[in-house]
Specification:
Layout: E1 8-9, E2 16-17, H1 57-81, E3 118-121, E4 132-134, E5 140-143, E6 148-166, H2 167-175, E7 188-201, E8 210-216, E9 220-224, E10 226-230, H3 238-243
Antiparallel strand pairs: 1-2, 3-10, 4-9, 5-8, 6-7, 6-8, 6-9, 6-10
Amino acid sequence: MKLATGQSYCPNCGTSLQQNVAFCANCGTKITSPHSQLQQVPPVYYPMTPTQASVATGAYKAVIAVLLLIIVLLGVGLYATSSGHLFSLTGYRYSLANPPNAQSVQPPNTSTAQPPYTVIWNSCGGSPGSGCNMSSNGWREGSVPDTYDYFVSFTSTVPVRVYFFTLGQFVQYTVCSGDVNCVSGYYSSLPATTSQSTAAFKLAEGCGDYVAIYVASSTGIMYPNISVKQNAAPFITGYCAQTGGG
């Protein structure tokens, strides 16, 4: 036993004990250590989950977005070079299997239709004579009716050039955003001018495959007075004669 004063006594006979004795001098009882050993409690271990360093998610998202864009562009480019005709941003150009040859732009051996003509274009949404806004980064187009002579007449504040493309050539021109260098084969055109008077286009007399494109050299206003008159040729003409269709 152990008192609060720190003095030890024999647990059997109560005899006062000296410090660090193994047996009681009175009764011989074996004495345990006078100072109880404190049970050592192992320290509690709290495993710590290592904190993951913060990731700059914005930078990673940007890299992923760029990679996805590259994959998409590669896919579009592959599709464009295969059997598909999807337009892309990878420099794709629409190709023609049988572009017009030099013979296809020769006017047919027929007389030009005589007036009066039927006016088919003299305004752009406003009143006749109000003019059409033109710019150097755009164009205006209109189809040329099959079996008709097509007469070009206009005045303009800026020079305007007129191209006559087949439908395939028009697709090439459109895909390249108005770059005439993309157009393959031969085509008819009128030189750039601020005034054109009844220039006749005759290739559509026996062919329904033409579009007229009006391109300005800069921003300005064109005042069109485009007219037509039926003058059917007794044979196929222009590009249709080359391809064997009418």
